[in-house]
Amino acid sequence: MSDIRVKICGLRTEADVAAVAAAGAAYAGFVFFPKSPRNLTIAEARVLALAAPVGLAKVALVVNADDALLDAIT
Hints:
The protein has helices at 14-22, 42-51, 67-73, and strands spanning 7-9, 27-31, 57-61. By secondary structure, it is α/β, with parallel strands linked by helices. Strands 1-2-3 form a 3-stranded parallel sheet, with helices on one face. Helix 1 links the parallel strand 1 (7-9) and strand 2. The longest helix is centred in the middle third of the chain and has 10 residues, at 42-51. The chain is globular, with a radius of gyration of 13 Å. The N and C termini lie far apart (34 Å).
């Protein structure tokens, strides 16, 4: 039997983060691609990441990100 871990991406609200955690997902994904309707600013994502329960890993989705954006996200 394999150990399956689920990531749910495109979270935009604290309620989204809470629902993902309650559903048992291992990863919460935040989108940093301006053309996406689910795009977040770094400040918005920070609020959501801080609201995430301990143990829920946070993942950044980027497209062709430059070093400056990657540095700012981390």
